[in-house]
Amino acid sequence: xxxxxxxxxxxxxxxxxxxxxxxxxxxxxxxxxxxxxxxxxxxxxxxxxxxxxxxxxxxxxxxxxxxxxxxxxxxxxxxxxxxxxxxxxxxxxxxxxxxxxxxxxxxxxxxxxxxxxxxxxxxxxxxxxxxxxxxxxxxxxxxxxxxxxxxxxxxxxxxxxxxxxxxxxxxxxxxxxxxxxxxxxxxxxxxxxxxxxxxxxxxxxxxxxxxxxxxxxxxxxxxxxxxxxxxxxxxxxxxxxxxxxxxxxxxxxxxxxxxxxxxxxxxxxxxxxxxxxxxxxxxxxxxxxxxxxxxxxxxxxxxxxxxxxxxxxxxxxxxxxxxxxxxxxxxxxxxxxxxxxxxxxxxxxx
Length: 350
What we know:
14% strand
């Protein structure tokens, strides 16, 4: 079909020569620039700046007080104290106070720093061109100049109240970590050196809960004893028995090699600590023929006929011996406490 045969309404309209040329639009990636800087009230009103400065200083001071409260909590609240706090219910007073004070201390430092940056430090946006990774001397000089300018604009040198309180908060917060070292264990004081044994306290058979008499202990037998007055219902039973538990063994006096052991015994009945001097496991395995006892944890072996000295294993020293005798009722009794700490060695042992 020729063009003459195409209806006029189907022919394309004639184009305006002005539209033949493609219009070049503005560059969509052109730098739009930065909006005009609007000063904050702190920038134009020194009284407002002082208020912001006091607010920042207050938060840093609050952080210092919270850190002091964190440390004081260790002294004030015992580990087993439970209190009711709504809406948490019954919680540990120590854990709650530690979490609250440490949280406030850290939050106050962060909030103070943010408020300082948003209200007092310079908020002028600065655009800079990208540059090569390796800095030119001019760039290095510019960086140092920018740093000095930033330090000046932050008011760090001029606003001594903020600076001093920030230093105080940052200096105190690390003390929280030092105090946490207390959780490595209780302060030993003299608690590890003393047990419930004292002169006149009877030896109580841990199986029958009756006082032990010399005739109750046969040669070659092993009996466990605890101090008179200690009961399994006592709140601190586990702590006390961990230091005071005894092994009672009867050996023919002629078979006792150690002179002091023989003097501290009663008719061949000797009393040694049941607590291993390696890591504190209870000793319970007795070899009748050799008078050796074995710790089941790490196989430390002690000779009960020779002052309970270590003959094998990792234990560092002999088992402490308790001096015993017989009271007027014919029952075995202690003649004092152990003369050295029981259990594993600790930092205070000389």
